[in-house]
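Please go through the sequence and C-alpha cells given here and tell me how the chain folds. Record follows.
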Amino acid sequence: MEQKMKAKLLLSLFVFLGLGLGCTPSEDHDHDHDHDVHAHDGGTHEESHNSNHSDDVDGGVASFELPLADPEIIVLAGEHSDGYYTHVITASTWHMYGDGEDVSVFKILTYSNREGYAIALNHADNAFAGGAYSRFDWFIDDANAVHYCQTRFDAATEQEAFEAAAADADDLAGAGCGGFSWSGLTAVALDLVGSYTDSWGTTHEIDGDGWEQVSSWSNDGGVVTDSSKFVRLHHSNKQRWLIAQNDEDNSWNAGLFSRFDWTEVEGQTYFCQTTYDSATAKEALEAAAADAEDPANGGCGFSTWSALTE
C-alpha cells in the first residue's frame, strides 16, 4: 500500500511539473508584450488591414477609378488630318479614318486639357488591339500647332493606360513618341462653305468663321427681317456636324450653343439645327445627331430637315 501511495505521489508531481513547463511566466509576459507592441503600432491586425485598404473590393484587390474628365469640351474637338488618317474627336469618342473601310474607334473614358491626355477603350472591332486600352497624349506648341502621340494602344486595363508614362513633349521631332516622332494634327476646313437658300426662303451664308441665317416674313402689312449668326467652334465633314455659339445679338437663345447636322440624299443637301439652346459647347456636341434616314419626311426633332439649295 505504501508503495502504491508513493507511486501516485510521484505521478502527480510529474504531471504538475509537465503542465508548468508548457508556458513559463517569462514566456507569457513576452507574449503579452508582443501583443502590446502590435496594438500600439497599428491597432489589431484587423484594424490595420482595414485602415490600409479602405477602398478594397471583392477579392482583396484595391479598386481603381479614373479621374473625371474635364467639364469643358476637349480642346481637340473637331476634325484633323495627320497626313495618313483623318481624326474626328469629340468628348466621348476618337475616330481614325483611313482608306475605304479602315476605321478605328476609341471610346474616351476621361481626358485632361491641362495635362494633355485622354484614356480610351479600343473598340472590339478595331484592326489592332481590339478591346484593349489606349493612352493619347497631345501638345500644342507656341505656334498653336497640335502634336499627338498614341502613347499606349494595347494596355490590358484602363489603369495601365492611365499610369503609362506620358510621351516626351521635349522631343516632338525625334523619338519622344515611343521611339518615333509625334504626329502633327492639322485642322480640316469645312466642306459646307457656300451661299444657300432653304425651303422656307431663309438665306444661309456659311464660311469658316460661322453660319448666318437671314429670314423675312410679313407682319402688319410690312416685312420683318431677322438675322441670326452662329460662330463656328468645331466641325466634322466625315460625321457632318458643326458646333457653334449663338451670337449675343441673336433674337433667340443669344449666347447659347447650337449643333447643326447635315446630310446629302441623291444630290440634295439637307440640314437640321439639332439643338439651339445648349448651355455649353460640350453639351451641344454630345447631343444626339438628327435622324438622317429620311430627311425629307422627318428626323429633325418633330419636323423635316430643311433642304439647302445653292
Observations:
- The longest helix spans residues 2-21.
- The CA atoms of residues 196 and 309 lie 5 Å apart.
- The chain has five helices and 16 strands.
- The chain has two domains: 78-187, 194-309.
